[in-house]
Design a protein that fits this description.
- By secondary structure, the chain is an alpha/beta fold.
- The protein is built from eight helices and 17 strands.
- It has two domains: 4-187, HUPs (Rossmann fold, 3-Layer(aba) Sandwich); 210-327, TPP-binding domain (Rossmann fold), CATH 3.40.50.
- It is globular and about 60 Å long.
- The structure holds flavin-adenine dinucleotide.
- Flavin-adenine dinucleotide (FAD) binds at residues 215-217, 241-244, 255-260, 272-274, 276, 278-279, 282, 292-295, 298, 311-313.
- It holds the Pfam family ETF.
Length: 328
């Protein structure tokens, strides 16, 4: 079999995460262009049923490592197993989501394999030699760098929402190979005893297609209710600027920006956010940006596709009403 592209798949609550579907969809397109095979790797417990799903999104082969020790993510166990799978599969390229897990795994795997790692990439191209080149933002999103390496495989983490998800084809079949975990005891430095998940009906910030974010102008945590109402009307996640987080209006896990989360939704609605470079670093690759700010000179308007100059406390409830009417 020709060597190809290997996608490290992430699953959550028995479903493949959206970023994994994006990587399979784009991986299929690139594999076809470069004449490569597409392999998905599934780690976890009771995950074999997800192999046909990976096939329907384009995988030619799915490597399944099903073991109780992989039920919850741990750095040591996942690094150990993936290091072995990658060496056995010998792909040209290994890609994973630029998620908490991907950011933790990729540099460790690169070190063990002795190869380079392109992190937080937003685009991939095939060059004239049929080699993949990865594009990533640098200088807080002010410029882009293209990365390629001679050493194989090249490892890359891809920002969620960088690629669209193709329509699944349930007729597609993949070769499913089950591999024993055989984790080296020395690699099990941490054992997860319990995972406590916070219940929320809103999408996770980095997966969300639409995000409504609030800044210092929200004045307090209670006022975020108007952003939550808007978010719930359109199925969005709620984010915040660092000023809002530092002021205690929102927890740190909701911070968007250079020292917070990097997001790339289809629609980002910035409410009372000035548009500091560190905020733009985390959301500048959003497909459509809407800014609501009472200062017409605010920097956020330099990146916004649509700008509303005015008081967010008047505009946001009007938007919510209108969306509710339109979506009723
Ligand atoms: P402000 O800059 O104070 O802007 C508030 C805006 O609200 C103003 O534009 C104002 O016109 C508008 N406004 C006020 N009242 C209303 C109203 N009623 N209706 C409409 N508009 C109104 N920031 C981040 O966001 N994320 C990061 O990850 C991050 N990392 C950083 C890392 C470093 C190393 C440093 C130095 C800074 C970082 N910052 C980050 C901070 C960043 O520089 C800004 O201070 C911060 O983004 C400002 O947040 P803000 O836009 O909410 O507040």
């Amino acid at each position: 079999m020709p060597k190809g592209i290997l996608v490290v798949l992430e699953q959550y609550n028995g479903e493949l995460r959206k970023v994994s579907l994006e990587l399979l969809s784009e991986g299929r397109r690139l594999a076809d262009m470069a004449g490569l095979d597409l392999t998905g790797v599934l780690l976890g417990q009771g995950v074999k049923d997800l192999a046909p799903v990976a096939a329907s999104y384009g995988a030619d082969k799915v490597v399944v490592v099903d073991d109780a020790a992989l039920k919850d993510y741990t750095t040591g166990a996942y690094t150990s197993v993936l290091n072995r799978v990658i060496r056995d599969e010998d792909p040209e390229v290994v890609v994973m989501g630029n998620t908490g897990i991907g950011r933790d795994l990729a540099p460790r795997l690169a070190q063990r394999l002795g190869v380079g790692c392109a992190s937080d990439c937003v685009a991939v191209a095939v060059d004239s030699n049929y080699k993949l080149r990865f594009k990533r933002p640098i200088y807080a999103g002010k410029a882009y760098a293209e990365m390629a390496t001679e050493a194989r495989p090249i490892l890359a983490t891809i920002r969620p929402n960088s690629f669209s998800v193709a329509a699944p084809n349930s007729d597609r079949q993949a070769e499913v190979v089950e591999v024993a975990a055989s984790i080296d005891a020395a690699d099990l430095k941490a054992i997860v005893k319990e995972v406590i998940r916070q219940a929320s009906s809103r999408p996770e910030l980095t997966d969300a297609n639409v995000i409504v974010s609030g800044g210092r102008a929200m004045k307090n945590s209670e006022n975020f209710k108007i952003l939550e109402d808007l978010a719930d009307a359109i199925g969005a996640a709620v984010g915040a600027s660092r000023a809002a987080v530092d002021s205690g209006y929102r927890e740190y896990k909701f911070q968007v920006g250079q020292t917070g989360k990097t997001v790339s939704p289809t629609l980002y609605i910035a409410c009372g956010i000035s548009g500091a470079i560190q905020h733009l670093a985390g959301m500048g690759s959003s497909k459509v940006i809407v800014a609501i700010n009472k200062d017409p000179e605010a920097n956020i308007f330099t990146v916004a596709d649509y700008g509303i100059v005015g008081d967010l406390f008047e505009i946001v409830p009007l938007l919510t009403e209108e969306f509710k009417k339109q979506l009723a």
